[in-house]
Amino acid sequence: MSRRAVVIGAGAAGMLAAAALSPVVDHVVVLDRDELPDGPEHRTGVPQGRHAHLLMHGGLEAMEKLLPRAGMREALLAAGARQIPLSSGMLALTPAGWFRRWRHHDAYLTITCSRALLDWVVRTAVLRDANVTVHRAQATGLLGSARKVLGVRLAPVADGAFDPGLLAGHGLRLSGDGREGELDADFVVDASGRGTRIVRWLEALGIHDVREENLDSGLVNATRVHRVPEGARNWPLTLIQADPYSGRPGRSGMIVPIENDQWMVSLGGTRGSEPPKDPDAFLAYALDLPSPLVGRLIAEATPLTPVFTSHSTSNSRRYLEKTRLWPDRFVALGDAAATFNPLYGQGISVAALGAQSLAEAVRQTDVGVPGLARRVQREAARYVEAAWSVAVSTDVLYPGVEGGRPTLAHRLTAGYSKRLTTAATGSYRAASAVWDITCMRTGPTRLMRPDALLSALIGPPLPALSGPPLTADERAFLATLTHAHGRGTPSPAR
């Protein structure tokens, strides 16, 4: 008998879930409300799509395992994405000072590109498998019970008619008036993103004990794409981090090199210090950050887009792995399980690692084996917890945060993180511990290893830098920009 899996959502999380399931079922049906573009173009169903995204080392490794024939790193780079070694290819001003740039072998490679390009490359790789197809439809609920999901309820989108391919090839049963349908499945994945209705769907099945937690720092992202100025083709990833320890609203900025010789420039401000949408005020905000470096760099760069803003930045978690009952044949991955402040850049990696957990589980046993879905949900929650602890322990410190107040545990964690970050400004060993967590190479227990604890205790063996650690070529380029604006050339970092 033919076996079918249904994945709700055709973003990166959904397509990676389809890649996990395609080797073990006859067909994977991916459902999405949007008309998917033929190339790397933005779409309305991705609220953070126009803002900066980083594909961390751990997430890229998971993608490589999920799509071994695609060569995801090479595919992304061939499409125009950039590969950034964090230890040598990043300028980062933290609340404790500038990070140094090291010449060590770099195990902390990060891929930077637009979200549209990332989604397109992933989707293209997954759809090379003939048993994965994407159809336009809106999932409205789950079929089955609290013990087993048997399929999905659907409604058409746009013109009020179902996708003919969905009708013809997959046994979709329509209601009398044709406005609703039911599609049986041997396995269902909810990867529908921030707009998921999973709690309501589970309640309809009889599961009423999903605990939810929300924490919102009020962060607003403002992003504009610029053409890379002549002479800055290899300018490093540049981050001016917000300071959660000051008691004031956080303000941050970053320049992310992306495809087509472009910079994606994102500014972020928590409640009370939101970045503006007006182009002139956008530049002024960047110049007024703790370092004016981002502003100086973009002052002479040609803008290619308007300023786009987004308020979809809250941390929201559904503790699906802790319910008393969990239905077989159903999991939720990516933003359907938890969303994170995108400032920390770990959402896509969490989705990829969750899909990897699904792939490993279904390779070992049948998708319908009782208890398999619960095991996958719990395994995926490990990666959720790692990213959640990073995001929430920082965001809770900002003034005006909604959904929680700093606890003693938060303050202890913040104190330790501040000491370790201070050490990392002058210690490769401490910086490695920070990057291990940031890049999702290891979990939060990495911070409790003896080398990290000792680094935090001793502090930085090298003195603080007086400015950004620029190469001679970078300093010469920046001098031409600062001279044009009547500002002095930054002194060499010491």
Automatic annotation (TrEMBL):
Keywords: Signal. InterPro entries: FAD/NAD-bd_sf. The keyword Signal applies. Residues 1-19 form the signal peptide. This is Flavin-dependent dehydrogenase. It comes from Streptomyces griseochromogenes. The lineage of its organism: Bacteria, Bacillati, Actinomycetota, Actinomycetes, Kitasatosporales.
